[in-house]
Amino acid sequence: MPADTPSTAAASPFDAHESAVRSYCRSFPALFTRAKGSRLHAADGRSWIDFFAGAGTLNYGHNPEFIKRRLVEYLEADGISHALDLHTAAKAAFIETFVARVLAPRGLDYRLQFTGPTGANAVEAALKLARRVTGRSGVFAFTGAYHGLSLGALAVTANRAKRAAAGTALGDATFVPYPDGRLPAEQTLAWIERLFSDGHSGVELPAAVIVETVQAEGGIHVAPADWLAALQALCRRHGVLLIVDDIQVGCWRSGGFFSFERAGLAPDLVVLSKAIGGYGLPMSLLLIRPELDRWAPGEHTGTFRGNQLAFVAGAAALEHATDTGLEAEVRRKGERVAARLARIAALDTRLAVRGLGLVWGLDCSALGDGFAERLSARCFELGLLAETAGRRDTVLKFLPPLTTPDDELDAGFDLVARALGDLLRG
User: Are residues 289 and 141 in the same domain?
Assistant: First the structure.
C-alpha cells in the first residue's frame, strides 16, 4: 500500500473533516483504492463485483483501456485541460463523433449545448430554455421522478425528503401519475389531457413536460413505448415541449443509445450526463431542436462547461461502442439478466422484477420496509455492490457496466441469490 494511503482503521479524515451529507460511503463502508473493468478493490484486499457503476456513470467499466490510452496520449501531448466554451480540437472531435455516430444514424437533428458538468445543471438549462421559448413558466413532472437537487431540478423531483432539504418553496411544477402500475397507463394520459384542455382545471398550460422513459431512482419503472409515443403526440397538440431526461438510462444503458428509441420519439430537448463523459469524467449535454435554440450568448454559462478530458474520453467511448456493436451486446446481456432475475424472484412469490437492457430492479416492497437495504448490505458483505432505489428504498437496483463479461454477470447474480437466501432463511 502506498505510504500516503490511509488504512481503513485510520480513515478518520472522513469522519473528522468531511460533511455529514455523504451517503454512499455509509452503505458501502470500505477504503477503495483501485478498480478495473467491473471490479472494485479496497485497501484491505477485499474486492467486489460492481453492479452500481458510479450510479450509471461507468457504462464502459472502470479504467477501460480503449479510453485510457486516448486520455494518456492527450495529456502527454499537453492537450488543453480547461477552455470554458472556447473552440478546441477536443470539442470539435467530440461534436463530429457524436453527430456521425449517434445523431445521423437515427435521423435526429439537435444543437449541442455543453452545460455545467452535473446532470442537474443540464436539467436547469432545459427548464430555462423551455420557459424562454414558450413564454410559460409551469412544468409538468411525474410522481416518482428524480431530476437532480439544485432548485429548478428539485422542483420537478418528486421525493418529499429531498424536496424538504431545499428550505424554500419549490414552485411552477405540477405532478401527474407515472405509468408505474398504480393506475392504468391510459388513465395517466387522460389525466394530463384533461389538465391541458380544461380551462377550469386550475392549472395553466405548461412550458414543458419532463419525463424519464425509465424511472431508475424511482424504482425501475419502465414506461410503455406506446404511452411515450402518445405523450409526445399530446404535447405537440398543445404546443408543450417534451424534455426527456436520459441522464441515467441513456448511452446504451437501456438498449439503444437513447432510451426513447424504442418508442420512436424525437423529443424537443434531451438531457444527457453520467456515462456521456466516457470514463467517469464530469460532463453534461443538452440536445436542442435547432429551431428552439434561442439562447442569447452567455444566458446559461459556467466555468466548467465543456470538460476537455471528457470530450476526449466521450469521443473514444462512442467510437469503441459503435465499432464493437455494444448496442446488440446490451440487448443480449439484458435478456440473460432478465432470465437470471426471474429465477431469483422465484425464490419468493412476493418479489417482482422490472427493467430492460442493463437497468434492472428486484422489488422487495412486499417483504417490508428495510428488506432491500438489508439485502444490499448482505450483497456487499459477500462481494457485490448494488444500491437501493424507489419509494422507501424497497428496490435493489442493478446497473452493471455494459462491458461486464457474462461470467461476472453470472457471478454477481449468484451472490444476489445467495444473499437473498440468507435473508429469507432468517
Answer: yes
